[in-house]
Design goal:
The complex is a heterodimer of chains A (about 180) and B (about 500). Chain A is of the alpha/beta class. In chain A, about 30% of the residues lie in helices and about 20% in strands. Chain B has one domain: Orthogonal Bundle (Cytochrome-c3 Hydrogenase, chain B). Classes of the chains: A alpha/beta (about 180), B alpha+beta (about 500). Bound molecules: iron/sulfur cluster.
Chain lengths: ~180, ~500
């Protein structure tokens, strides 16, 4: 790996954090990565607003207005933006709700749902409105790379970061290009 | 107090809560003297799993629902598996399948507990709650306490490898079938596991000692911080011992007396019900018997490591049992209600998992091919297990075409929803009330939530996000003070 430090921000939109877990699955390599990478906004730090970064990793698709806002913020601030995992690339499992009217979905969960004593659908201004459909990232902003898998395996993350440090195109070998 | 824009109060928002899994925010309403009038934890995302899995074939469930959560996918995989066993009329798994599932679950608990303690919570405990934001993370721990951090990383790695050995993949693997498991243990990973396990048990013991030391370093803080008394719910085995995979429900009152014992899992709706509130996508479950007697918001309870250690009469492995007794002697009066005691209890459980894995790895059944049992098809199934964060309920009904017609999921963190709100209120009252609000004080509110290791990702069958921006408005809604954290973690 080269000597300079790159700044990396990560976030989860409508994802399950599995992609973030897979990034941590590089295990001890985290110690080496630490020497070359400075983490900016990420669920693993207490930095809550993104600043200019070399690399932005986003898991999860766009489920609500808040997600849209965060994605735009990441695009503005990241030189290279990567859609990480099935949810970011095509909406993934949460997009299974796209065939259903979002109000029906809320109704089922909060009104007609099993063993419930209230019929309140949460709508406080403190919680973000849902998107009608779950969307992949590239429908809203330009995405530079797609890292496939549910989640992409740890070596794929390592290759991506290493390639960026070495200033070359990433090359994920076949066993680590996953589509499950 | 249902409206946060209510006249006369100042609003403070902490958003996003970091070093937790998933997305949430905290809001505070203060009066002109700075007294806390309301403190809330909001869960800001929604995914609607219960609706969109309707119509899917039931045998897909373990694979679908584990995508609720990448941190504890195994918990959802197994809770769904237990439910679909019942749908297949299977009452008893083959010994090999049961041991593989238990092993998988212990691996999961071990990695999740290590992740929470070392990667997410330890920066608060090691550096202090108001320490420099730029180092208050796992990378900071790696630099200043490399030995502790590396052990944490390796314990988590080991747990993840256990999962891979059983399910083929560390995250979202494929293991459970209706009535059993799809393959025996992977022999190659097994070599690694047997070579490492003694060391992992040793390190897990160190982790309990560390958590114990950090808790007791400041006993006053330990005993007072965001403490709140509540009933506790968990599974226990038939003798009342600690149990994660099987068993029946036990509820203890705050004073340590038993409210329900060996409560049959299939009657869980007689025990708890849920309500929703307008300001959170996460529901609020409560104990019916207490609510019926006392009304109001009563009946909330807690689940998770603290609940399990408080509830059980014993632990089947010697080291963990030793530390359980020590813990109850020091922290329990008669139960341990301290917020920070969650961390200590969590590490005792991690040690128990390491010891249990050590024991089961010697069992030749792990390589048996007798993996699937059969039974008579039923129309519903209820799978309840103890996930890392507490009791997890999966309930499904299916039609004759094998399609899911009803799904009810109560994930662990949901059961702690009331309690986390209480913790935020109590920390706010203790530390914010009447004071000038500083970043360090605000982190304390996050610390109170973090103890619960909330998986907000699971909790809404959804997921959220968060930057920190705090606004204070005066009685007329005018901005009088604002604090923002920039991406270097500096406040302005
Ligand atoms: S791609 Fe898979 S692992 Fe990643 S966030 Fe989506 S469901 Fe989770």
């Amino acid at each position: 790996m080269a000597d300079q430090k790159i700044k990396v921000a990560t976030c989860s939109l409508g994802g399950c954090f599995g992609c973030h877990m897979s990034l941590l699955d590089i295990d001890e390599a985290l110690i080496e990565v630490e020497k070359h990478v400075q983490f900016d906004r990420s669920p693993i730090t207490d930095i809550k607003n993104i600043s200019k970064c070399d690399l932005g990793l986003i898991e999860g698709g766009l489920c609500n207005e808040e997600n849209v806002h965060v994605l735009k913020d990441f695009r503005e601030n990241c030189k290279v933006l990567v859609a990480v995992g099935a949810c970011a690339i095509n909406g993934g499992l949460p997009a299974m709700r796209n065939g259903i009217d979002v109000q029906d979905c809320l109704k089922e969960v909060y009104q007609t749902g099993y063993n419930l004593t209230t019929d309140i659908i949460p709508d406080d201004p403190e919680i973000p409105r849902l998107q009608e459909k779950v969307q992949p990232l590239h429908e809203l902003v330009k995405v530079d790379y797609f890292l496939p898998g549910c989640p992409p395996p740890a070596p794929a993350f390592l290759e991506l970061i290493t390639a960026l440090l070495e200033g070359r195109e990433p090359n994920i070998d076949y066993p680590h290009r996953r589509f499950d | 107090m249902e409206n946060q824009t209510q006249a006369g109060l100042r609003r403070i928002a902490i958003e996003p809560i970091s070093r937790v899994e998933g997305h949430g925010k905290i809001t505070l309403l203060l009066d002109d003297e700075g007294h806390v009038k309301q403190a809330r934890l909001h869960i800001v995302e929604f995914r609607g799993f219960e609706k969109f899995i309707e119509g899917r074939p039931y045998y897909e469930l373990p694979l679908l629902v584990q995508r609720l959560c990448g941190i504890c996918p195994v918990s959802h995989h197994l809770a769904a598996a237990k439910a679909i066993d019942q749908i297949n009329g299977v009452k008893q798994l083959t010994p090999a399948a049961l041991k593989l599932r238990q092993l998988l679950h212990w691996g999961q608990l071990l990695q999740s507990h290590a992740l929470h303690f070392f990667h997410l919570a330890s920066p608060d405990l090691l550096f202090g709650y108001d320490s420099d934001v730029s180092k208050r993370n796992i990378i900071g721990v790696l630099k200043e306490y490399p030995e502790i951090a590396v052990q944490g990383v390796k314990i988590r790695k080991f747990g993840q490898e256990v999962i891979r050995a059983v399910s083929g993949k560390r995250i979202h693997g494929i293991a459970a079938l209706p009535g059993g498991m799809n393959q025996p243990l992977d022999r190659e990973v097994y070599q690694y596991l047997t070579a490492e396990i003694d060391q992992i048990v040793e390190w897990s013991k160190d982790a309990v000692e560390l958590a114990r030391r950090l808790c007791l370093e400041d006993t006053e803080l330990f005993n007072s911080f965001a403490s709140t008394e509540s009933p506790y719910m968990s599974l226990t085995d038939e003798k009342g011992g600690l149990e994660f995979y099987d068993g029946n429900l036990r509820v203890k009152n705050a004073d340590g007396s038993i409210l329900n014992d060996q409560f049959p899992n299939e009657r869980y709706t007689d025990l708890i019900q849920e309500e929703a509130k307008s300001w959170s996508y996460m529901k609020f479950p409560f104990l019916r018997s207490i609510r019926e007697a006392q009304g109001g918001d009563s009946g909330w309870y807690r689940v998770g490591p603290l609940a399990r250690i408080n509830n059980c009469d014993s632990i089947s492995t010697p080291l963990a049992e030793h530390y359980r007794q020590d813990f109850m002697k020091i922290a329990g009066n008669p139960l341990a209600h301290q917020n920070l005691a969650f961390h200590w209890a969590r590490m005792i459980e991690a040690l128990h998992c390491a010891e249990s894995i050590q024991k089961v790895l010697a069992d030749p059944d792990l390589f048996s091919l007798d993996l699937v049992a059969k039974g008579n098809r039923q129309s519903s199934g209820i799978g309840i297990i103890e996930a890392p964060r507490g009791t997890l309920f999966h309930h499904y009904e299916v039609n004759d075409d094998d399609q899911v017609t009803m799904a009810n999921l109560i994930v662990s963190t949901t059961s702690n929803n009331f309690a986390m709100n209480e913790a935020v209120c109590s920390a706010a009252n203790q530390h914010i009330d009447g004071n000038e609000v500083t970043p360090g004080l605000l982190n304390l509110l996050e610390v109170a939530v973090r103890s619960y290791d909330p998986c907000l990702s699971c909790a809404t069958h959804a997921i959220g996000k968060m930057p920190l921006h705090v606004e204070m408005l005066d009685s007329k809604g005018q901005l009088i003070h604002q604090l923002s954290k920039n991406s270097n973690g500096e406040f302005s």
